[in-house]
Site-specific integrase (Leptolyngbya iicbica LK), 358 residues
Amino acid sequence: MKDIRPTNNNGSIRIRFRLAGRRYGFNPVPGGSYKNTRDLKTAQAIATRIANDILAGSFDPSLDRYRLTPRVAPRAVPKDVISLRDTWVLSLGLSEGILAGEYHKVRRMLEKAAPRLGDTVWLTGSGLAPGTFNKRLSLIRKCYRWAVSEGILDGSPWDAIAHRNIPKEDIKPFTVEETRKILEGFKGSPYGPFVLFLFLTGCRLSEAIGLTWEAVDLEAGTVTVKEVLAVDPTGNGHRRIRKGTKTGTVRVLSGEALTGLLSGLPKGNPGDLVFRSPRGCIISDTNFRARYWGPVLRSQGIPYRRPHVIRHSLASHAIARGMSLLEVSYLLGHKDTTMVIRTYGHLIGRPDLPDLGI
């Protein structure tokens, strides 16, 4: 049996353990703080009592024996889904950053639909894309399963609803000719160097936006990609926060064309951004796509694809030229070759039709 001990649950105290295939978890000191020495010692004493009872065969699976205040009468059943959701979320003690994501989006849907507890149409009939639908279905399932485990509800209508199949994206990389036209269209544009950097490196937009001169070594001809400037989920949609790359990897990129590009830019201080908007601000990917990227593709007669397809283009051309999967994975910042095989496997070792002499 593993040691049973109190843990830090966003400042409060929680005891979690598994016994005979079942999970247990509760707050042994309601209102207590993990930083409070007395509260923590009290929780440790309760954890020790649980461990001793298990060894003695007298463990109380209801956990009532170990609570400082006995569990009160069963909670009242919320009248609607939004009340249930709010009660569940409150019990999780999540950070603002996490709550600002799908948790907040689900709540906005509930505010508009105001569904009763047994209603599922507000989600199943919402017309969401399969990927988004699956995320929110998983979230609301967890909410109802929690309510069942707490004795608030007798069952969940969501367990009978299946996730939806996500159609595989038909990726159409930019051809060499399309790439040439795009770069030609950005000549003279304040975003010209930014777009050329994306094509040369295959970096994610947030990686290029967050690149600082500290990561550029012109003498060695290298660029170290280890951070991004991501949109702050708790902000207004414009504020950004600096954090590690999407996969947590660090990669060093080099090449004559890349060195030539960066050498031609006015160098700033180590903490300064390499690329900025025409007004000298942090680049807004939304503004860039709408006001610059889209119009250039239209003017050049190129079917619209997201800037993210530039990454696919780099990978496709690299594979076509014989670069190994491990090398391509490194350039794209993946931890291993799994994603590359899944996305570009159809390009690897693709044979030509045999010459039948006819």
Observations:
- The chain has 13 helices and eight strands.
- The chain has three domains: 6-66, 81-150, 176-347.
- The CA atoms of residues 12 and 109 lie 30 Å apart.
